[in-house]
Amino acid sequence: MRAAVYGIMLLVCAPVALGQAIIGFAGGSQYDSYYGSASGDVIGWRFTVNDDLYVTDLGVWNADQTGGIESPHQVGIWDGSQNLVTSATVDAGGTVVGDWIYASVAPTSLFTGQTYTIGALYFPGDSDYYISSASSMTAATEITWLSSVYPASSELGFVFPASTSTSIGRFGPNFLFGGYSLEQTTWGAIKATMQ
């Protein structure tokens, strides 16, 4: 009598925590808005995704890094077709990670090879700033920074920022993300007796 044991092996996509999209930057100038319109304008940056990931939080840069931000800011991520895929309003009560304050969002998948745009709505005179024309920056390896973005003068308010610049920056908005890893898992075993 021979006994055979068969194991079933599964590859499971398991979520893993990874970090911030923009880790840091140096230099540059601070601005509180682009046009100075009372309806505000969306400032940010465009990027491609190098590995599938999911966004967990959206944030804005905390310029003084101690006292929080002065006003709530809408932050969003748009896909390559200019569809808003996730958004949140970030305020002074958010979670501080590094130099940014974050608000949680429902986990939102971003896919390898796709281009996305992140932007935050800024208003003049509220003492909340973004950085333009940084001398350097460090991004997570899961993304590639492509360009700075800002709105056309006819695109004010919380709308997709279509205009681009190659100056390093418009670092105000940021996001936290997790990723997926393949884990090999044994799922039960079947024992059979063969004669």
Tell me about the biggest sheet?
Answer: 6 strands, antiparallel
Q: If you compute it from the alpha carbons, what radius of gyration comes out, rounded to the nearest whole angstrom?
A: 21 Å
Kindly provide the name of the CATH class: Mainly Beta
Order of strands, main sheet, comes to: 7-6-10-4-13-14
Which architecture would the CATH scheme give at its second level? Answer: Sandwich
Structural class category: mainly beta
The overall pLDDT, averaged over residues, is 83
Indicate how many domains the architecture comprises: 1
Structure characterization notes:
With 195 residues, this protein is mostly beta strands. The chain has a single domain, classed as Jelly Rolls. It is built from no helices and 15 strands. The strands form four sheets. A six-stranded antiparallel beta sheet has the order 7-6-10-4-13-14, with no helix packed on it. Strands 1-15-5-9-8 form a five-stranded antiparallel beta sheet, with no helix packed on it.
Question: What's the topology here?
Answer:
Elements: E1 2-20, E2 22-26, E3 29-31, E4 41-49, E5 53-61, E6 73-78, E7 84-90, E8 95-97, E9 100-110, E10 115-122, E11 130-132, E12 136-139, E13 143-150, E14 163-165, E15 173-194
Antiparallel strand pairs: 1-15, 2-12, 3-11, 4-10, 4-13, 5-9, 5-15, 6-7, 6-10, 8-9, 13-14
